[in-house]
């Protein structure tokens, strides 16, 4: 069975500083990996996905993630946080028919 | 395109009542799924379908039934509601399997008293 662990339930950064949200996964297959974002009282929006092409994946709003097979990690980064980035972020691992979500990381951005 | 629609947006049930959460998509997607979202647990897959007439269980299927008679619709039935089913429910669809981008509905907030 596959699983996802988001290593931090809450991350707090100052506006303009880098963001790092950590995700480790476990999968028996070559997985697809995703990051989704959920703003308060909103639905989920896809930030980016990895499907065995380039290991560095660029997403929307300046986010990117690097797939590291040796470390089974798929950490999400952004060079400079904006206030509008405050939200909950979910790392997701998927094989053919099953998607598993991490528990989520709440990102707070301080002015 | 309306995308993925869910009804109702809010629902309060008494323990033991049954109800159906509706989900529809107009993108001709084969893959549809239901999740529940609980604090600190992310989203957990309840049931999914890879096409009309084909459904399968996800991570937390107990207490829920689904059917897929058409490509567009994927209703989720609660047979006998329990307080543990208080949650926010999301329906999603994608054009491929779960490896493709999923489009999520706005969610249904269900409270069981």
Protein traits:
heterodimer, A: mainly beta, six-stranded mixed beta sheet, four-stranded antiparallel beta sheet, B: mainly beta, seven-stranded mixed beta sheet, 0% helix, 51% strand, globular
How would you describe the overall organization of this protein?
- The complex is a heterodimer of chains A (111) and B (113).
- Chain A is mainly β.
- Helix content of chain A is 0%, strand content 55%.
- In chain A, strands 2, 5, 6, 10, 11 and 12 form a six-stranded mixed beta sheet that branches. Chain A has a four-stranded antiparallel beta sheet with strand order 3-9-8-7, with no helix packed on it.
- Chain A is globular.
- The mean pLDDT of chain A is 90.
- With 113 residues, chain B is mostly beta strands.
- Chain B is 0% helix and 51% strand.
- The radius of gyration of chain B is 13 Å and the shape is globular.
- Chains A and B meet through strand 6 and strand 11 of A and strand 5 of B.
Please render the helix and strand layout as text:
The complex is a heterodimer of chains A (111) and B (113).
Chain A: E1 3-6, E2 10-14, E3 19-21, E4 23-26, E5 32-38, E6 44-50, E7 56-58, E8 64-68, E9 73-78, E10 87-94, E11 99-101, E12 105-110
Parallel strand pairs in A: 2-12
Antiparallel strand pairs in A: 1-4, 3-9, 5-6, 5-10, 7-8, 8-9, 10-11, 10-12
Chain B: E1 4-7, E2 10-13, E3 19-25, E4 31-38, E5 42-51, E6 54-57, E7 64-66, E8 76-78, E9 87-94, E10 103-104, E11 108-112
Parallel strand pairs in B: 2-11
Antiparallel strand pairs in B: 1-3, 3-8, 4-5, 4-9, 5-6, 7-8, 9-10, 9-11
Q: What is the 3D shape of chain B?
A: globular
Largest interface: A-B, 21 and 23 residues
Structural class, from secondary structure content of chain A?
mainly beta
Radius of gyration of chain B: 13 Å
How far apart are the first and last residues' alpha carbons of chain A, in Å? 41 Å
Which term fits the overall shape of chain A? Answer: globular
State the order of secondary-structure elements of chain B, H for helix, E for strand: EEEEEEEEEEE
| Secondary-structure class of chain B | mainly beta
Largest sheet of chain A: 6 strands, mixed
In helices, the fraction of residues of chain A equals: under 10%
Terminus-to-terminus distance of chain B = 36 Å
The low-confidence parts of chain B are none
Secondary-structure element order of chain A, N to C: EEEEEEEEEEEE
Tally the helices of chain A: what do you get? Answer: 0
Portion in strands of chain A? over 45%
Proportion of β residues of chain B?
Answer: over 45%
């Amino acid at each position: 069975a596959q699983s996802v662990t988001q290593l931090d339930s809450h991350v707090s950064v100052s506006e303009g500083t880098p963001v790092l949200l950590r995700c480790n996964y476990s999968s028996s297959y070559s997985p697809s990996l995703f990051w989704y974002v959920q703003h308060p009282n909103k639905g989920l929006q896809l930030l980016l996905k990895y499907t065995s092409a380039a290991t560095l994946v660029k997403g929307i709003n300046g986010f990117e993630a690097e797939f590291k097979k040796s470390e089974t990690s798929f950490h999400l980064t952004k060079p400079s946080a904006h206030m509008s980035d405050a939200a909950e972020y979910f790392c997701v691992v998927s094989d053919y028919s099953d998607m598993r979500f991490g528990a989520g990381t709440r990102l707070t951005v301080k002015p | 395109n309306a995308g993925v629609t869910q009804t109702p947006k809010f629902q309060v049930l008494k323990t033991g009542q049954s109800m159906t959460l509706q989900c529809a998509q107009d993108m001709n997607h084969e893959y549809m799924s239901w999740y529940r979202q609980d604090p600190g647990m992310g989203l957990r897959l309840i049931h999914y379908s890879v096409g009309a007439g084909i459904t399968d269980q996800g991570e937390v299927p107990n207490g829920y039934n689904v059917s897929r008679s058409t490509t567009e619709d994927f209703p989720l039935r609660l047979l006998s509601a329990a307080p543990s089913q208080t949650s926010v429910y999301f329906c999603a669809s994608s054009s491929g399997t779960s490896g493709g981008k999923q489009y999520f509905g706005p969610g249904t907030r269900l409270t069981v008293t």
